[in-house]
Amino acid sequence: METEVKLNYLKWLTQGLEIDMFEIMSMLIIYSQCDLTRRLELIFQLFCYNEDLRMDRFEFKFMMNKLCCSIGATLQIKKSFLHDLITGIDQKFLNGNAFDQMNKISMEEFVAQ
């Protein structure tokens, strides 16, 4: 695992990208050996700024942006695929009924989606 993280870090440097703590932490969580549900919970906790673990739309968009940047910087994925992925997530979460009347989503709702 240590070598893999160093290679990913090196890729950020060789592409001349600014290294961001949220992007590094996201990739560490994604590469962890936890099950998928636990990884989603950890990612949610990383980007949710309030104690009641209810993420607002701004935090959600920020999270998705950082996840896309970190995935795009470390994996060989076509940008069109990432665009399609984000469009699908926007439709499911932001335009759908995932957020409550206060425009927030809980960690349980996020993981269940």
Automatic annotation (TrEMBL):
It comes from the Eukaryota. This is EF-hand domain-containing protein. It comes from Strombidium inclinatum.
